Sequence to fold (225 residues):
Amino acid sequence: MAGVSPVVRVVVVDDDPLVRTGLGLILGGAPDLELVGEAADGQQGVDVVVRTAPDVVLMDVRMPRMDGLAAHRRLRDLGSRARVLVLTTFDADDLVLTALRQGAAGFLLKDTPPADLVAAVRRVAQGEPMLSPSVTSQLIAAVTAAPAGDPPRARARALLATLTDREREVAEAVGAGMSNAEIARALHLGVATVKTHVGNVLTKLDATNRVQIARWVHEAGDERA
Fold:
């Protein structure tokens, strides 16, 4: 019917049955979200996603048989259009960074409040990557460990040098975990203008999501230091 929002179809992949049950209850409480399948490991998750064709997949990182990263790669190889939200407790930052480089749509802590989890699923389903400040701060700690003279830092600075002054300001705000609306207020811009700048930054940095922008910003560090 006209005026009725489409239902977002979701699959949960996690080896902990309590986590799957909890996420199912949370998703079931939202009228515009539908749990269409669940799986206890990555291989089973790939099968369920292929069979049900969901809009969003909540994917754990560490699982038996096939972990979340391998499952994500397999889904991409199979041409799945499902957007993957990585579930993590941040006990393995290296795995989270790998998921980031593979183009995951976002990251959620397993103790994310229900309302925030529902909002994240909705945002990702609409094509907006999910990057929360709490996740950003921990990713920053992981990507800024290299010394200033390392090649990754030099490459990050070279990439950021391709940005205009305004695009650099927007990139740094994204790196701080700010939403488009927050960036608009801070820089006295319209939200549509911010979205345009974010799109330009993604293109110039060859990034697929906002977490990757944060990665380049924080790997570059303070060039005035």
About this structure: Residues 153-221 form a domain with the Arc Repressor Mutant, subunit A fold (CATH 1.10.10.10). The chain is about 55% helix and 10% strand.
